[in-house]
Design a protein that fits this description.
With about 375 residues, the chain is an alpha/beta fold. The protein contains 12 helices and 15 strands. The protein is globular and about 60 Å long. The N and C termini lie far apart (about 45 Å).
């Protein structure tokens, strides 16, 4: 069973029940009651995007456990006090498995985990870990490196662009790997970025795409948009585009370059299994091609055959652990050394990345 709720209905329910009761303990489940699983996301659940991919990751759990689980998806919840109140209420209502689906939910979700040791919490894109609290993130950079190779092969201007949500390490690494992959095909490639500072703002996203196109960018990376606004704008302008999380090919049948698809079901299923058996242990889950979480799909037929062959070779090496996009020599945008020749950045260095590689022309916001 799955319920899709919004901020309005949740807050109305909280007001009726009295928020004070949401903080005064945890409802106990009888052994024969289903496990309540709640996913909270910052944007509407549509047919594409981040929230859609997270919700789809719960489908195999529902198929495997049937009426032994009750799944609730709470959508369009802004980061901040409302999210904290809503997450607290869902736990107070007896849901013992919480997926906090946005970076900005971290502090509130972590406090819930600390107050409720029998509740398992998964948190998207964060870095804090506790015994019952696991952050999870995708190695998008493995896919964006490959699509960078593809982008360079179809670009005529040598100028690529990215409409990006927030300047957090997860998205910075995606841009950097995109740039490095493109430079592997055309060393002089340039990348410009527009930060929209929103997970969901279709109008601003479309404006950003048009601005990049006006600057001569002929391939655009839609970096963490939950709408097809960027993809549609590029289709209208005859410019190639690609995105993260779920396919938007139907919105750009002529100019879609591909999608770094994420399948969260392996991680979600293993976490639910561990919760039910009492063996869950919080860990920093950084998942990629080898984990069957990240996969590039919907490759454009416009990509030259020789480039596609090289992409497949690199993809296989990434999957086997034989290659990382962040292997030196890497030069930072300011000219300093990012990684020495032959040195591969560790996962810890990647998840803390706060600098751009040489070739990214737009400075990071202060």
């Amino acid at each position: 069973m799955q319920n899709n709720l919004t901020r309005r209905t949740l807050m109305k329910s909280a007001a009726v029940a009295g928020l004070a009761t949401a903080f005064t303990g945890r409802s106990a489940f009888a052994a024969d009651e289903p496990l309540g699983i709640t996913l909270v996301v910052p944007s509407p659940i549509g047919d594409v995007g981040w929230g859609h991919a997270l919700a789809a990751g719960l489908d195999p759990i529902k198929a495997a456990y049937g009426d032994k689980v009750k799944v609730t998806v709470i959508e369009n919840i802004a980061e901040g006090p409302d999210a904290d109140r809503i997450m607290n209420k869902t736990v107070a209502d007896g849901n013992h498995f919480l997926i906090a689906g946005s970076f900005g939910y971290q502090n509130g979700a972590l406090q819930i985990a600390r107050r409720n040791p029998k509740v398992t919490v998964l948190h998207a894109s964060g870095f804090q870990v506790a015994p019952n609290f696991s952050p999870f993130a995708a190695k998008y950079f493995q896919g964006t490196y490959l699509l960078g190779m593809a982008a360079a092969s179809v670009s005529k201007t040598g100028k690529l662009g990215s409409v990006s949500a927030f300047a957090i390490p997860e998205l910075i690494t995606s841009i950097n790997a995109f740039t490095l992959g493109a430079q592997a095909v055309k060393p002089d490639i340039e990348v410009s970025v527009v930060w929209v500072n929103s997970w969901f703002d279709p109008a601003k996203e479309q404006e950003a795409a048009k601005a990049l196109i006006s600057q001569g960018c002929d391939v655009i990376f839609s970096n963490a948009q939950d709408t097809p606004s960027v993809i549609s704008a590029c289709e209208a302008a005859g410019v190639y585009a690609f995105n993260l999380n779920s396919s938007m090919k139907k919105y750009a049948p002529k100019t879609y370059l591909g999608c770094i698809s994420t399948d969260w079901s392996p991680f979600f299923k293993a976490s639910v299994d561990a919760h039910l058996t009492g063996t869950f242990k919080g860990t920093n889950a950084f998942l990629g091609v080898a984990d069957k979480v990240v996969e590039v799909v919907d490759w454009s037929p416009a990509i030259p055959a020789d480039t596609m062959a090289k992409i497949r070779q690199v993809e296989a090496k990434i999957g086997s652990g034989g290659f990382s996009p962040f292997t030196g020599p890497i030069v930072k945008a300011d000219g300093s050394e990012g990684a020495a020749s032959g040195v591969t950045l560790t996962d810890a260095q990647i998840v803390a990345m706060d600098w751009h590689v040489k070739g990214v022309k737009t400075p990071l916001p202060k």
